[in-house]
Inverse folding.
């Protein structure tokens, strides 16, 4: 798979949606005030189960630059015809009030995938599966220096956020899923002895230990005073970049708004031996799936 598939700066896109930006090709849809843009691109990957396709698309003048990212597609007929390598034209619909704030419709396949050309293997788990996590050093919400080596003997789930992130489907969803998992693990002595959760901020300038502690407790509930198995941590910019590169996370400060960080999403599960066992790309995973991956990493079966 093209290595840029998961280098998805979707937050740029969503920020543009929320700010109502538009371009010369946009037309208003009066019932919902949706905007529509001519769209062309090549299919990179297809997720039929979740009705999404990853597409390397051309620039949309006045709206967004060319990039590779994932788009919802609601039309059922598409999934029998859409294959990696196909070239399509469509309408990109933007409606911040809808369940999906953006999607593709009126799909037209202008060039089918070459059946004689072998498709590159799709590795949804990237190349880090089975690799040991280096001994990165961080500072947690209590001001304590920690390392991935401190989690040896337990399965640990790791995700990435920054506290000021305003997008409900990005950091907010990651932190909600982790706090839900923390409650379930904290309530089970057996799970608590086998699992841990770690959230890493890639905004060390603003996400101090005290702020991370307050942030985590806010997700744990109104009267929460302890995080239990959940730790939140950060490190120097240099160290965070090394960690992000290892897990395949990409992030950069928004050039138009220095308070925002455009980033991809990455959540990983590390086994008790310190080796990566699972990587979730994007936000299409649930707390139950995360707990199941943690249980499998410990050798436990079932939910």
């Amino acid at each position: 798979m093209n290595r840029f598939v998961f280098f998805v700066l979707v937050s740029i896109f969503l920020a543009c949606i929320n700010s109502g930006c538009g371009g010369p090709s946009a037309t208003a849809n009066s019932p919902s005030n949706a905007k529509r843009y001519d769209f062309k691109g090549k299919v990179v990957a297809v997720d039929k189960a979740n009705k999404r396709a990853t597409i390397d698309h051309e620039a949309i003048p006045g709206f967004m630059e060319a990039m590779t990212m994932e788009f919802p597609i609601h039309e059922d007929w598409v999934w029998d015809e859409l294959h990696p390598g196909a070239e399509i034209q469509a309408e990109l619909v933007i409606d911040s009030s809808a369940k999906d704030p953006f999607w593709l419709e009126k799909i037209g396949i202008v060039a089918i995938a070459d059946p004689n050309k072998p498709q590159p293997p799709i590795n949804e788990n990237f190349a880090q599966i089975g690799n040991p996590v280096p001994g990165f050093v961080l500072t947690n919400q209590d001001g304590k220096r920690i390392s991935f080596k401190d989690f040896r003997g337990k399965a640990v789930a790791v995700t990435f956020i920054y506290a000021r992130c305003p997008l409900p489907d990005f950091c907010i969803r990651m932190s909600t899923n982790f706090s839900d998992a923390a409650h379930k693990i904290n309530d089970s002595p057996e799970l608590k002895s086998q699992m841990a959760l770690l959230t890493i901020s890639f905004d060390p300038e603003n996400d101090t230990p005290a702020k991370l502690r307050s942030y985590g407790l806010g997700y744990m509930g109104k009267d929460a005073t302890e995080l239990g198995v959940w730790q939140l941590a950060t490190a120097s910019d240099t160290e965070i970049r090394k960690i992000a590169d290892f897990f395949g996370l990409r992030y950069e400060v928004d050039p138009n708004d220095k308070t925002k960080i455009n980033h991809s999403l990455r959540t990983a599960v590390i086994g008790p031996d310190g080796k990566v066992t699972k990587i979730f790309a994007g936000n299409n995973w649930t707390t139950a799936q995360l707990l199941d991956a943690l249980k499998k990493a410990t050798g436990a079966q079932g939910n």
Notes: Helices lie at 10-19, 171-186, 189-192, 209-220, 237-247, 287-298. The radius of gyration is 20 Å.
